[in-house]
Specification:
Helix 2 packs parallel to helix 7. This protein folds into 2 domains: 169 residues, NAD(P)-binding Rossmann-like Domain (Rossmann fold), CATH 3.40.50; 121 residues, N-(1-d-carboxylethyl)-l-norvaline Dehydrogenase, domain 2. It is α/β, with parallel strands linked by helices and 306 residues long. The termini are far apart. The longest helix has 29 residues. The chain has a 6-stranded parallel beta sheet with strand order 3-2-1-4-5-6, sandwiched between helices. A 3-stranded mixed beta sheet has the order 7-8-9. The radius of gyration is 20 Å and the shape is globular.
Length: 306
């Protein structure tokens, strides 16, 4: 299929949050016809202003679409937008591909793929990583599994949205399993970064100097170098919220329970995010977990005047 015909592919897009909006805009900018739906009308209008089409429901977004991208928060929302009263499946053409990009249990991904097969649709279990910045830049990492036919149909859109696409096998659920492992590490790394910065601050180290040293030393991680500047600046505008990691680390622990596999580090990190949410920071950037340590130790990792 040539580039021009790829670009005319009609895509339905459901879920225009911090990640979904960047992904949908990228598709529009690269010539795809994108019909977007979100429960927040202002998000739909923002996509329309960027050149996409506004859809009044998930079903409307799916009409005539060759590919339907689902970037909602959790499994319950995915279930609703696909199979609910105004769900997408009723209007999605037979043979179309559903790209399930939400972070969901592997068992849900497998069951959803089976349900879609019954209605004549293909599915890619394709959660993403890279945050709002990666979504906006089109450099996301996609960890995907599903049939070869689904990959073939989704390939042009995947290339537009992602820097790396990992094909993990034909079985739905493999992509979600890998994303679960990623979220275990991401959540633990953020929690560890907050604990380390708070410890150093309490011991008298200058927080910004501490960050510079660790960022260039063996203790650094991607999350450390990305999230600690938020802590230092006192800027907790949500790129990914505390509540997201309450959910995602909960999913990690559910997976461990199902496999009878111990996850003590993930459990500790989950408790830290729960503490931050209980203190009223659930809607703030996930780096706000540092506020738990600031409150209990009477310190401020944030700079003066923040």
């Amino acid at each position: 299929m040539g580039e021009a015909s790829d670009a005319r592919q009609r895509i339905g897009f459901i879920g225009l949050g911090s990640m979904g909006m960047g992904m949908a805009r990228n598709l529009v900018q690269k010539g795809f016809r994108v019909a977007g739906f979100d429960l927040r009308r202002e998000a739909v209008e923002a996509l329309a202003a960027a050149g996409g089409d506004a859809a009044a429901s998930a079903a409307e977004a799916a009409r005539d679409a060759a590919l339907l991208v689902v970037m909602v928060v959790n499994a319950a929302q995915a279930e609703a937008v696909l199979f609910g009263a105004a769900g997408a499946v009723q209007n999605l053409p037979r043979g179309a591909v559903v790209l399930l990009g939400a972070t969901v249990p592997a068992s849900f991904a497998a069951a959803t793929a089976a349900r879609l097969a019954e209605t004549g649709h293909l599915m890619l279990d394709a959660p993403v990583s890279g945050g709002a910045a990666g979504a906006a830049a089109g450099t996301l990492t996609v960890m995907a599994s599903g049939p070869a036919a689904a990959f073939a149909k989704a390939e042009p859109a995947l290339a537009a949205m992602a820097g790396k696409v990992y094909r993990l096998g034909a079985e739905p659920g493999l992509g979600s399993t890998v994303k679960t492992v990623n979220q275990l590490l991401a959540g633990v790394h953020i929690a560890a970064a907050a604990e380390a910065m708070a410890l150093g601050t309490r011991a008298g180290a200058d927080p910004r100097a501490l960050f510079e040293v660790i960022a260039n030393s063996a203790g650094a991680s991607w999350m450390f170098t990305n999230r600690v500047p938020h802590m230092l600046d006192g800027d907790f505008t949500p790129k990914s919220a505390v509540d997201i990691f309450v959910k995602d680390l909960g999913l990690v622990l559910d997976t461990g329970r199902a496999l009878r596999f111990p996850l003590p580090l993930a459990a500790a990190a989950h408790q830290l995010f729960l503490m931050a949410a209980a203190a009223g920071h659930g809607g703030e950037d996930d780096s706000a977990v540092v506020k738990v340590y600031e409150a209990c130790a009477g310190i401020r990792v944030r700079g003066q005047g923040q």
